[in-house]
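Q: Hi! New to this. If I give you a protein sequence and the SMILES for potassium ion, can you show me the bound structure?
A: Yes, paste them in.
Q: Okay, here:
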Amino acid sequence: MRHFHTADEVRAAEAPLLARLPEYAAMRRAAHGLATVVARELRVRTGGVVGRRVLVLAGSGDNGGDALFAGAELRGRGVAVEALLLRPDRAHPAALAAFRAAAGRVVTRAGDPDLVIDGIVGLSARGSLRPDAAAIVDGLTAPVVAADLPSGVDPDTGAVDGPAVRAAVTVAFGAYKPVHVLASARCGELHLIDIGLDPDAATITSPDDGEVGRAWPVPGPADDKYSQGVTGIMAGSEKYPGAGVLCTGAAVAATSGMVRYVGHGGAEVVHHYPEVVTARSFDEAGRVQAWVVGPGFGTDDDAADRLRSVLESDVPVLVDADGLTVLSQRPELLRGRSSATVLTPHAGEFERLTGSAPGPDRVRSVRALAADWNVTVLLKGRATVIADPDGTVSVDDAGSSWSSTAGSGDVLSGMIGALLAAGVPARTAAVMGARAHSRAAALAATDRGRRTAAPISASPLLRAVPDAVGDLRARA
Ligand SMILES: NC(=O)C1=CN([C@@H]2O[C@H](COP(=O)(O)OP(=O)(O)OC[C@H]3O[C@@H](n4cnc5c(N)ncnc54)[C@H](O)[C@@H]3O)[C@@H](O)[C@H]2O)[C@@H](O)CC1
Ligand SMILES: [K+]
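A: Thanks. Here is the predicted structure of the protein with potassium ion bound:
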């Protein structure tokens, strides 16, 4: 499990550490880790360390101090290090003294370095890069190694509302911060340096692939089709039969139990998946352990009646797509639910549900909806944010955007529905489904082996689900 600590959580954990250690010891540990990573990057990228050129961009706080201390250490390893001080009058005094003592040069122009260390701003960052820093960063061509986090990106929300650093590598000090999962594309390759920080458990986490693989339900010796969970799918319509096919197919692929389909697209579904049992109505469906309701099933009064029937049942229900539109008009349908409810909106559906877009602080917005409506919410995105009503948040970083394609959400909801039917708790099911879904998208984009990825649609994504689950289980 990876934990992502907010700036306040890191500061709370920093206080006892700083009280215990000699002055600058924590910074020196951070700087040593940073210098080690930079030296490794120089070796990989240029074939050596001695005589290579590194530019340190140092702001006015401890983040600049870390970068200058690292610059001093790299000087000791024979690197030609220059430092550009964004606020020369406020540069970290001890770190600047160490840098000068190591014969580091302070310059006023960026030059032509092999690598850049971004020590402009760290945990105390507010807003995007200021114009002077933005102009310098804009002119860089060398790869950037960010100290703690890429400057200009909000540490707690990952929001970028103006110029910001795009790092090739980020070296996190003491703990991962939310920016590292919410804006992973800005961070590049991540390294964590142990500086002796021992923070409490974070409220934002992300499971490892191995944990997802270990928890994936597979049939045991005593299992039969019913004991592994029966998933009910209410999706698709005469107008949109594809949503029913994709959603049902994903439930079939995700676990080994049984899938029932209810709706107007039964013939299409059975044509693709003969193992699916169909019914015309909810009342005729038979026993189901979790429902997925909404993809492509319409938003009229009939759809609302069907949604009501499902929500009145006492099993977990996932509401997606058209189901969310209906719910946004009739939130009272959730009243009295005795079992878990999972809502899986994209940003537009989120706005329909709450009246406002998720905004820059996606974690806060998702938490608020989950608490207000007493549901588990999964907000889709490159970083998918999942919150329980008690405020616990999991984030799945897809690592790519190949799944941004029509019908991909229907696949996701079918997979999560099957996990719910297998008895996996709501937030865990959502985060496991999201992880397998992003893995399947990445596998499909490379056709499970092609060297260069290419765009995909939802059908190859769905076909890659068993390989994705197998991959995750292999990491268990
Ligand atoms: N306290 C410690 O002993 C440790 C601190 N660490 C480092 O300290 C960093 C935090 O340092 P600080 O709290 O001094 O603050 P920062 O270095 O993050 O920021 C310094 C100052 O920059 C200004 N600033 C804010 N947003 C800005 C922006 N967008 N553009 C330009 N300037 C901006 C603010 O005045 C802020 O106080 C961490 O990220 C980490 O790198 C690590 O060395 C670990 C140990
Ligand atoms: K930084």
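A: Residues 53 and 80 are 5 Å apart (CA to CA). Let me know if you'd like me to explain how to read the tokens.
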